Amino acid sequence: MSKTKRVIFSFDERSLESLQKMTDQGRYPSMASEVKDSLQISHALQSQAAQGFTELIVRNPETNEERVIVIPNLSPSSQSK
User: Fold this and answer.
1) What was the pLDDT predicted at 23?
2) What's the confidence (pLDDT) of residue 81?
3) pLDDT at residue 75, as a whole number
4) What's the CA gap between 26 and 54, in Å, rounded?
5) What is the C-alpha separation between 4 and 18, in angstroms, rounded?
6) Which of 23, 40, 63, 66 lies deepest, with the highest CB count within 10 Å?
7) In 1-54, at which residue ranges do the beta strands (DSSP E only) sit?
């Protein structure tokens, strides 16, 4: 069984509201679960960015409409800073 470690974060009011909203919308049992999933997603995106992939293409399966999402922290210009 993996060990767990308690970590304390401090959020400003706006960030805490955002986290609570994401927790509710995602139907997570706790904010910690939301943060854990967010970290896994961020890690996956960073791994792809390291291979040169910096854009996401999302598709609405009902309409087949597609959009490109550019994530600023993954773009080449932000990585060189």
Assistant:
1) 97
2) 47
3) 65
4) 24
5) 25
6) 23
7) none
Interatomic CA distance for residues 23 and 76, integer angstroms: 30
Within its chain, how far is the Cα of 75 from the centroid? 15
Tokens standing for 49?
A: 């960015």
Exposed e or buried b per residue across 16-33, where buried means at least 16 C-beta atoms within 10 angstroms of its C-beta? eeebeeebeeeebeebee
Q: Using one digit for the tens of pLDDT, what is the confidence trace for 21-62? A: 999 999 999 999 999 999 999 999 989 988 988 889 999 999
Max distance between CA atoms of the chain, in angstroms, equals 44
Residue 66's beta-bridge partner residues?
A: 59
Helix, strand, or coil (residue 46): helix
> Are 54 and 75 in contact, with CB atoms under 8 Å apart?
yes
Decide if 34 contacts 22 (C-beta within 8 A). yes
If one compares 20 and 1, the residue with the highest pLDDT of the two is 20
